[in-house]
Each structure stands twice: as structure tokens, then as C-alpha cells.
Amino acid sequence: MRTDKADNFLVQYEMHKYRLYVYDDEDRLIAPPMVISTDNDEAATEQAENMLDGAHADLKDEDRLVMRFPKE
Q1: How do residues 30-53 score in pLDDT, each as one tens digit?
Q2: How far apart are CA 56 and CA 72, in angstroms?
Q3: Fewer CB within a 10 Å sphere, N or C end of the chain?
């Protein structure tokens, strides 16, 4: 959780917990999802890209699909 002070108000930001689901060549989940904690979709997508090595994966924020990474 991040906190900022703005005009005498304390503002707290809750980080999103994205989940990265990685699949094998037959579209079977190969492991429990990896958790990525960031402020926004763009940062989560960037972190997910850095974690993957050409694997097929889905990045989700709860039930919402943020990005589908096709197999390279």
C-alpha cells in the first residue's frame, strides 16, 4: 500500500494483484498463477513480459483479462 500526503489529506492507494497464468503447448495450466502487484495494467503487462520467455500466458485482474500473450 502506498500513501501520499496532499493538502493535509492522507491518501492511500491499494495495489492491484494481477495474476499471470502460464500454459503449455496444449493449453494446460502448468503451475499456480504468479502474482504481480502493481498500480496499473501497463506496469503489470511490462512485468509479465519480463517474466515470460515466449510462453503462452494470460494476465488477469480478478476475472478481467488484461493481456493475452500468444506463444512465440
Answers
A1: 999 999 999 999 999 999 999 998
A2: 8
A3: N
Pick left, alpha or beta for residue 38 (phi over 0 → left; psi -120 to 50 → alpha; otherwise beta).
Answer: beta
- Rounded distance between C-alpha atoms, residue 23 and residue 31, angstroms: 8
Q: What is the 3-state secondary structure (H, E, C) of the chain?
A: CEEEEECCEEEEECCEEEEEEEECCCCCECCCCEEEEECCHHHHHHHHHHHCCCCEEEEEECCEEEEEECCC
Reference 19, options 55, 54, 45; nearest CA is 45
All residues at 6 or more sequence positions from 55 whose CB lies less than 8 Å from its CB, including other chains: 22, 23, 69, 71
Measured CA to CA, the distance from residue 1 to residue 60 in angstroms comes to 20
Task: Report whether 56 contacts 70 (CB < 8 A).
Answer: yes
